[in-house]
What we know:
Layout: H1 12-27, H2 34-44, H3 48-58, E1 64-66, H4 78-87, E2 91-93, H5 99-105, H6 108-124, H7 129-136, H8 144-151, H9 158-162, E3 169-172, H10 175-186, H11 194-200, H12 220-245, H13 250-262, H14 270-289, H15 293-302, H16 308-318, H17 322-334, H18 339-352, H19 369-376, E4 379-383, H20 390-399, E5 404-407, H21 409-420, H22 422-427, H23 448-462, H24 469-480, H25 494-504, E6 507-508, E7 511-512, H26 514-523, H27 525-528, E8 535-539, E9 542-549, H28 557-569, E10 573-581, E11 587-595, E12 605-614, E13 617-625, H29 634-640, H30 644-647, H31 653-664, E14 668-671, H32 674-687, E15 696-698, H33 699-706, H34 715-721, H35 732-750
Parallel strand pairs: 4-10, 9-10, 11-14, 14-15
Antiparallel strand pairs: 1-3, 2-3, 5-8, 6-7, 8-9, 11-12, 12-13
EC number: 2.7.7.7
Domain VRR-NUC: 489-580
GO molecular function, one term: DNA binding
Amino acid sequence: MAAPRKELDSGYYLQHFNELLQFVAAHYQGVLTADSQTLLRDFTVLSEAAQQLLVRMLNRKGTVFADTELSYSEIGPPEPVLDELSQAGFIAPLTEPDLAGFWLRLSKDTLWQLLQLAKAELANAEQTHTAQADISSIKKSQTKPQLLGAALKLPVNWLALIARLPQRYVALQRQDALNYIYFLYFGRIEANLALFTLRDLGIRQTGQFKQQFTPRFTQAVQAQLAYQLAKAKPAIIELGKQLKKQPDNATALLNQWLNAVAQWPLPDDNALLLKRSDRCYQLGKLAEQYKLNDIAIAFYQQSNGFPASERLARLYAQTGDEQRCQQYLQQLLDDPSCDEEWLFAEDFYRRKFADDSSGSKPGHKRRSQLTQLLHDAPLVGVDELYLGKAEQGLMAHYAAQGYTVFHAENNLWLALFGLWFWHELFEHSGSALHNPFERRPRNLAAGGFYQQFATDIEQKLTQLAAPTAATILLSALTAHYGKANSLFYWHSDLAEQLLPLLQHAPQVQGVSSLVPILRAMAQDFSRHSSGYPDLFLLKDNQLEFIEVKAPGDKIQRHQLARLLALNNAGFNARIEKLHWIVDPNRLYVVLDVETTGGKAGTDRVIEIGAVKVQAGEVLATFSTLLNPGRYIPSFITRLTGINSAMVADAPSFADIAGKLAEFLQGAVFVAHNAKFDYGFIRAEFARLEQPFDMPQLCTVVNMRRYYPGLASYSLGKLCEEFDIKLTHHHRALDDATATVELLKLINARRCTPQLAIK
């Protein structure tokens, strides 16, 4: 039985706010702005009722409020409390900039009230005939957006009219000082304190890592630049929206931003430098979008490293400055900021400026290194039933050859990194977790983690080749399993994947090939934490890594960088391209279910019929009625002939689940409208907390595809069209047996080369 949910007392929101303020005052006194310090002092002298009401407002959406929506039993009448907040400067009457928030908050009834005041105002004044016509055409039956659109066209003083409403409207003040306090605590501009509430309700885990926290900033200049950059992120998004509406203003608005960016100091802190570079890069992309190449170049020059360096080189080439482009590419090749930057520069330089020694025909475009790598990758034939599930198809291909295959991608490497350096990441007194809610060290992205713990990291890297390495890893895994973190996710097969990776990784002169991979992650986590190959294969203690590419897929530069890094470290890592084939010896199970209704989540299976087929021959059948544990509706009985008495002594799904799973093993799931039947079987296994995942073939979809133009694709009509025997329609085994004949018709055309997928 689930534990009862905790109840929070009525003052929980004020307790949370005070907890945050006390934390900030204790850890960030040296970096608080004058406005933030004043806000902290002024808040402490407010009455408890005023504190409660202010925090209530802060935790709600928007900055504009009516007194009628601020009635709380623990606070009492809002008017005197609002007066106190106004005198302390925390709220104020509305001004022109507050109108946007006011319109968003307005109910339709209040909007109509306001329009009536505007109508009277216009009638008393000498207004144009057009204004009188505009107000007279407004009807109460119109929608709120229609009323609001009409209101905004009227030539009236809205602030004066709002003051005449029976409600009192106020706007929150001192938002910048408050947001700075939030920023110091969370490391981002957090609009509310939901994390505290989730913690107190027992939903959000805290306290699983270290308990003493160091400030994320110790210098005021550093903290205030970080805050500026944090505010710039949403502001740039809003700029993009504004430019879509006002493209003619792009030059003026982007030049304003260029002037603002020039005032941002170049920080010594790598994390801030990365954020500054990212903001400049985003602004450069906006400038390019509006064909303002000179402004884009200026933004990219303010950025630092990749990917801005790629855009800069391409713009130099695009604007005809070949010499500058060549010099810049050479500079990137001589001193790249990361692997991806070097790969871009090498590839772009070779295609733009290097002599063509490849022997390609004149006029033929040189392939990029990425395209060439994909072109040269070996082809592997995988049954077209895995369309849309390329990784799953290749996993089945190698499993059939005796490999142990895991779908690993990034999590394999992130989990190894996280577990091997768990203490430094999460438990060391100096780890970069700055409040109880953080689950990922803040200094990972910019290399600060390695700089801080270089000696410990290098010592631990040497242990990767030690005989005790597996024991160390297992100890970390068992000690920390399930602890919520933002580096990797836990799953039941993690040890099964990590131990062979650790034990069978190649060694070069006694050093594990894992060393350069984990060192690179520690030094530049943001660049080396993604792009790892899809599959991890193990056979005869040999490891292989495969990046899977289905027809039409492209290789990304960071994926190429990870493949090269793994190969340089001594691993066997490669790309494999899939091409779709039809296996004539594929094993199929054609299945049909009868159910108590149409919803797999709530209805139950009452009959299963299944036929195992290979190369057109029936190998075995499976058929059973099932007791659904509920009454069978009369309309189902009329449709199928199955009633509650017939299934009273039948087994439950749990009774036959093992036999059915065995019958389905290694086959393709085939059904007429496979989504329905597959969904019910999967739901039944899910009720037993058992996974269910099979490749599927739908005979409805494939009959439409290979036999187009028929009047109907229902099972009954198709059986009539192709003279297929169907004696007891809507009984599971009979329907499944008829569907076998449809499968034969489909495969007759699927297996014809000119009709099969290329």
